[in-house]
Specification:
Layout: E1 6-8, E2 46-48, E3 67-72, E4 84-91, E5 98-107, E6 111-116, E7 137-143, E8 146-159, E9 162-172, H1 184-187, E10 201-205, E11 224-228, E12 231-234, E13 256-260, E14 273-278, E15 293-295, E16 302-306, E17 309-315, E18 322-323, E19 331-332, E20 335-336, E21 342-349, E22 355-362, E23 378-379, E24 386-389, H2 391-394, E25 398-402, E26 415-417
Parallel strand pairs: 5-10, 6-9, 17-24, 18-23
Antiparallel strand pairs: 1-2, 3-4, 3-14, 4-5, 4-8, 6-10, 7-8, 7-11, 8-9, 11-12, 13-14, 13-25, 15-26, 16-17, 16-21, 19-20, 21-22, 25-26
C-alpha cells in the first residue's frame, strides 16, 4: 500500500431481503429477509487509495436519451473505491418541485432507490407511504454487511428521459419523529450500514421489480414496519407500496438495464466513466448481439466453477472487489495481495446449463497508487460458498440485466448477459 493510502468501506452490497424464490412470491428464502441470520458481519475496513476527492470526469460522448453517465470516483466523503455513481432527479409526485442528487451508487445487486436523508432538501417533503392500516411505513433493508433503516416515501424519479411516477423509495436516516428509533427487529441484524453509506444513496437496478415479494403475505421478515409515536412494528406490505426498482415503472425501456464501463489497465485508473442504459432490446443502443445470456435460478443466481469448486454466484456492481475464496493467494488487511498481478480463470454456468469462461485479473492492493479510483482487486469476504462478481467484473464489459418476468427479444428475465 502506497504512502497516503487509507481505508474504505468494504462494499458487499447485495440486498438480502429480495433474494428470489420460486414464482417470486413464495418467499425470500435462503439469505433473504426470512433468514436474516445468514447476513455475514461486516469485516474490518480494507485499504484503499487516498481520500482526496477526484473530479468527476465527463462522459466521453453524448449519451442517448435512455442513458445516464456513470463515474467511478471517491464518493461524497472521499473514501470510496471501485464505486460507480450516477445522478437522479427526485420530485414531489405530480409537481415540478424537484432536486437532482448526485453520487447514487449504481447497484445491480439490489432493487429500488434508497436516498440518504442528509442529501435531501427538507423542503422537498416527500409524502409518506402508508401501510394497510394507515400508519407511516418504515423499512429495514438487510444487506450482506448490515442494514439500512428509514422511511418509505413516494417520489417521481427521473433518469435521463425516463420517469418513474410516484414510486416508493426509502429515505435512509429519515429524522421524522416516528422513525427516530430503529426497531429491535432491524437493529439486531447487524451494523447500521446506512449510517456510513459514503454515497448520497443507492440506485438498485437489479433483477427484481420490488424488494421483498414474501412481505406481501408475511410480517415476520423484519423488513417493513408500521410506525407510530409508540414505535414501529413489523407488518406485511403490498407490492405496490414496496420500494420499487425505478426501471419497471418507466413508460418504456422498462425491462432491464445495460451497464458499460471501459477496461482498467494494470495499476488501475485515476478516472473512469461509462453509462447506464435503460431497456434491453428496446433501442438500438441496448441490443444483445454477441453477448451470452445467462438465465438465473429462482434466487437470481448462476454458478461459478473456480479451481474445481462450483459455488453460487451473481453479478454485483455495488461490491468494490471480486469476492471469492482462494487460500493460495496472500492477503493484506482484507484484500488479496499477490506478489504480481494474477490472471485467473473461472467458468460461469446459467440455470439452463449455458457455460462460458471468464478471465479476470487480481492485483495487490499494495501496488495501487494513491490517486487510483478503479482497479482490478479481489478479496475473500469470508461468506462461504459464494462468488461475488463485483465491479471489476464490469470493467471492459457490456453487462445486461433483464428483470424477472419482463419480456425481451432474448427471452424473459431474470437473466444476465455479457
Amino acid at each position: 500500500m502506497n504512502a497516503g493510502q487509507t481505508t474504505t468501506r468494504f462494499w458487499r452490497s447485495r440486498l438480502l431481503i429480495a433474494l428470489f424464490a420460486a414464482a417470486q412470491l413464495a418467499g425470500c428464502g435462503g439469505g433473504g429477509s426470512g433468514d436474516t441470520t445468514a447476513a455475514a458481519p461486516a469485516p474490518s475496513p480494507v485499504p484503499a487509495p487516498s481520500p482526496a476527492p477526484a473530479p468527476s470526469p465527463a462522459p466521453a460522448a453524448a449519451l442517448a436519451a435512455n442513458a445516464v453517465p456513470i463515474v467511478v470516483d471517491r464518493g461524497v466523503d472521499g473514501t470510496s473505491f471501485n464505486s460507480p455513481y450516477a445522478s437522479v432527479t427526485v420530485c414531489v409526485p405530480g409537481t415540478t418541485t424537484c432536486q437532482t442528487i448526485d453520487h447514487l451508487l449504481v447497484d445491480t445487486g439490489s432493487y429500488g432507490l434508497r436516498l440518504s436523508a442528509s442529501a435531501l432538501d427538507p423542503a422537498l417533503a416527500l409524502p409518506a407511504v402508508a401501510t394497510a392500516g394507515g400508519a407511516p411505513a418504515g423499512e429495514c433493508a438487510h444487506f450482506v454487511d448490515g442494514y439500512a433503516w428509514g422511511a418509505v416515501r413516494r417520489a417521481d424519479v427521473k433518469l435521463a428521459s425516463e420517469t418513474a411516477s410516484s414510486i416508493p423509495v426509502q429515505v435512509v436516516g429519515d429524522q421524522g419523529a416516528v422513525y427516530a428509533n430503529v426497531p429491535a427487529a432491524c437493529a439486531n441484524t447487524g451494523a447500521n450500514f446506512g449510517s456510513s453509506l459514503g454515497a448520497n444513496g443507492i440506485l438498485g437496478v437489479g433483477l427484481l421489480a420490488q424488494d421483498c415479494p414474501s412481505c406481501v403475505a408475511s410480517k415476520s421478515a423484519g423488513v417493513y414496519f408500521a410506525c407510530t409515536a409508540n414505535g414501529c412494528t413489523s407488518t406485511a406490505m403490498a407490492l405496490a407500496s414496496q420500494v420499487t426498482n425505478p426501471v419497471v415503472a418507466f413508460a418504456q425501456d422498462n425491462n432491464g438495464v445495460v451497464m458499460t464501463l471501459p477496461p482498467v489497465p494494470t495499476g488501475g485508473s485515476t478516472t473512469l466513466s461509462g453509462s447506464l442504459i435503460f431497456g434491453v432490446g428496446t433501442q438500438p443502443n441496448n441490443q444483445v448481439t454477441t453477448q451470452t445470456v445467462y438465465q438465473t435460478d429462482s434466487r437470481g443466481d448462476i454458478r461459478t466453477t473456480y479451481k474445481g469448486t462450483t459455488v453460487t454466484s451473481f453479478l454485483d456492481s455495488g461490491s468494490n472487489a471480486v469476492f471469492f475464496a482462494d487460500p493460495g493467494i496472500p492477503q493484506c488487511s482484507g484484500f488479496y495481495c499477490p506478489p504480481s498481478p494474477l490472471v485467473l480463470s473461472a467458468v460461469n454456468t446459467s440455470a439452463t446449463g449455458v457455460s462460458g469462461n471468464v478471465s479476470f485479473t487480481i492485483e495487490s492492493i499494495q501496488s495501487i497508487a494513491s490517486d487510483v479510483t478503479a482497479a482490478n482487486v479481489g478479496a475473500d469476504a469470508g461468506i462461504g460458498q459464494i462468488f461475488d462478481w463485483g465491479l471489476p467484473f464490469f470493467f471492459g464489459r457490456t453487462v445486461f440485466v433483464a428483470i424477472a418476468g419482463a419480456s425481451t427479444p432474448n427471452g424473459p428475465g431474470p437473466y444476465w448477459a455479457y
